[in-house]
C-alpha cells in the first residue's frame, strides 16, 4: 500500500492548463468557481472538543439528526462542517474547494468543498468524546491528503501512472475490461488485483491471482473495491460470501451488512422500484442500479456519488463498458440520478460505508 501524501496548492493557471490539455481531474482552489458553491468552512480544534465535550460552548456545536441517525458538527454560523453517520465509517468534512472534471468525456464539472474520508471505526452516538475519534479528527481536519474522491479520479481516462516502492502501478488510467470474442461486449469480473497484476491474500486467508489479459482493468465493483479497499483500507471479501467487509459484486455490496443502507431496495424483483426521494444522499455514498435483464434479480451496477455538478445535477463516477473504464462521462447515459435520464430511471438504492 503506497503512503499517501498531502497535496500542495496549485495555482489557478496550472489548473486551467490541465483542463485544456488532459482528461483527468483537476484539483485546486479555483477563485473563479467559488461563487458556485458555499464558502469553504474550516473546522478548528477547541478546548471543548479536545477535552471530550459533546455539544461545545465555543464556536463549534455538535447536533444529533435523524433519517439517517447522525452527528453533525456546526460552525459559529450554524453551517455543517462535518457529518458522521451512525454505523458508518464514512465521514464527510468541509475543506478547500476542488474541481473534478473529465473534459475528454463530458462537460460536467463538480466543484465541491466536501472531503470524503474513512474513519478507523464506525460512528456511534457520542463518539466525539472518544480518544480514537479525537486522534483521527486532529489528523484529518483540514488535511489535503488524498481522500476517496481523489483516489477515484486517479483511474479515469488520462490519469497518470503512480507506482509504489516495489514498482507496482497502483493508480493510472484504468479500462473496464478486455473485449469478448464477439469484439463488441467487454469481459466483466475485473477486480483490483487484476488491475495491479499481483496476487492478493484476503483476511479470510484466500489468495486470488491476477489474469494477464485483465491487467489494468476494473469493472464497476472492482473500481469501488480499489478505491475503498486497496486504497482506503476498508476490509475486502474474496467473494460475496467469504469473510467480512466489502463483497465482490455490486449486488453483493448492495445487499451486504457493510455500512448503512441510506436508500433501501424497494419494489418487486427483478427491476425493483426507483426511489421517490434522493435528498438523503450525501457525497461519498455508494449508488446501486438495475440495468440489465440478463442479471435476473441482481443489482448490477455500483457508482460513487459526487454531489451536484455546476449545473445542479446530482452526478456520480463509475466504471462502465461504454466508456471503457472509470468515468463521469456521458457515453451510455449521462451520469445523473435526477431527472428522467438513463441512469436516473435505473437507480435503485444507496449505502454509506
TrEMBL record:
InterPro entries, per database record: NLP_P60_dom (IPR000064), Papain-like_cys_pep_sf (IPR038765)
Signal peptide feature range: none
PROSITE patterns named in the record: NLPC_P60
Keyword annotations of the record: Hydrolase, Protease, Thiol protease
NlpC/P60 domain ranges (all copies): 182-353
Family: Belongs to the peptidase C40 family.
Name the UniProt record assigns to this protein: NlpC/P60 family protein
Amino acid at each position: 500500500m503506497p503512503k499517501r501524501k498531502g497535496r500542495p496548492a496549485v495555482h489557478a493557471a496550472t489548473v486551467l492548463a490541465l483542463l485544456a490539455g488532459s482528461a483527468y481531474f483537476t484539483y485546486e482552489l479555483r477563485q473563479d468557481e467559488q461563487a458556485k458553491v458555499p464558502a469553504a468552512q474550516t473546522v478548528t480544534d477547541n478546548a471543548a472538543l479536545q477535552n471530550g465535550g459533546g455539544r461545545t460552548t465555543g464556536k463549534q456545536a455538535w447536533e444529533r439528526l435523524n433519517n439517517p441517525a447522525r452527528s453533525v458538527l456546526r460552525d459559529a454560523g450554524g453551517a455543517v462542517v462535518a457529518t458522521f453517520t451512525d454505523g458508518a465509517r464514512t465521514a464527510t468534512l468541509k475543506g478547500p474547494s476542488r474541481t473534478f472534471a473529465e473534459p475528454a468525456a463530458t462537460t460536467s464539472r463538480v466543484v465541491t468543498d466536501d472531503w470524503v474520508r474513512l474513519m478507523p471505526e464506525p460512528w456511534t452516538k457520542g463518539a466525539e468524546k472518544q480518544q480514537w475519534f479525537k486522534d483521527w479528527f486532529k489528523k484529518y481536519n483540514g488535511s489535503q491528503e488524498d481522500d476517496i474522491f481523489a483516489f477515484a479520479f486517479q483511474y479515469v481516462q488520462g490519469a497518470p501512472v503512480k507506482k509504489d516502492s516495489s514498482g507496482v502501478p497502483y493508480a493510472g488510467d484504468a479500462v473496464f475490461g478486455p473485449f469478448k470474442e464477439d469484439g463488441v461486449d467487454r469481459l466483466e469480473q475485473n477486480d483490483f488485483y487484476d488491475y495491479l497484476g499481483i496476487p492478493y491474500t484476503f483476511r479470510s486467508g484466500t489468495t486470488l491471482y491476477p489474469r494477464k489479459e485483465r491487467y489494468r482493468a476494473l469493472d464497476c465493483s472492482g473500481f469501488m473495491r480499489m478505491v475503498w479497499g486497496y486504497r482506503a483500507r476498508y476490509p475486502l471479501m474474496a467473494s460475496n460470501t467469504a469473510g467480512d467487509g466489502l463483497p465482490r459484486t455490486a449486488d453483493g455490496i448492495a445487499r451486504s451488512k457493510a455500512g448503512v443502507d441510506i436508500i433501501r431496495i424497494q419494489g418487486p424483483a427483478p427491476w425493483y422500484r426507483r426511489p421517490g426521494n434522493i435528498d438523503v444522499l450525501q457525497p461519498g455514498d455508494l449508488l446501486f442500479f438495475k440495468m440489465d435483464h440478463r442479471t435476473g434479480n441482481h443489482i448490477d451496477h455500483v457508482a460513487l456519488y459526487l454531489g451536484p455538478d455546476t449545473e445542479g445535477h446530482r452526478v456520480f463516477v463509475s466504471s462502465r463498458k461504454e466508456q471503457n473504464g472509470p468515468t463521469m462521462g456521458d457515453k451510455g447515459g449521462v451520469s445523473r440520478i435526477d431527472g428522467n435520464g438513463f441512469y436516473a430511471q435505473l437507480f435503485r438504492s444507496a449505502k454509506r460505508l
